[in-house]
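The instructor's notes for this session suggest beginning with a concrete chain rather than abstract definitions. Hand out the sequence below and ask the class to guess, before any prediction is shown, which regions might be ordered.
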Amino acid sequence: MVWSLGRSVPLLPGGHPVRGGLPPWSNTPKATTPLAPDGYVQVQGELWRALSTGANIEESEEIVAVEIRRLTLFVAPLSDSSREVGE
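After discussion, reveal the predicted structure:
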């Protein structure tokens, strides 16, 4: 995490401000490698180290970021998160 000069808002690589723990992304992140449980995901054209919070995630599967620690995203399959929201 990079801190901007003179501001208390932390910035992530690419200059994305952290609000509520995660930056606002305009597209759905996807796994670029299988996550079993760790691997890499692509978000807004940037490659991030990621760790699955549950089941293994296949390459190209859409994911949702649930937490960020340092420069690692903790993710879950988008299909799992949409099921949880609907319940």
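Then share the key points. The chain has one domain: 26-86. The CA atoms of residues 1 and 69 lie 9 Å apart.
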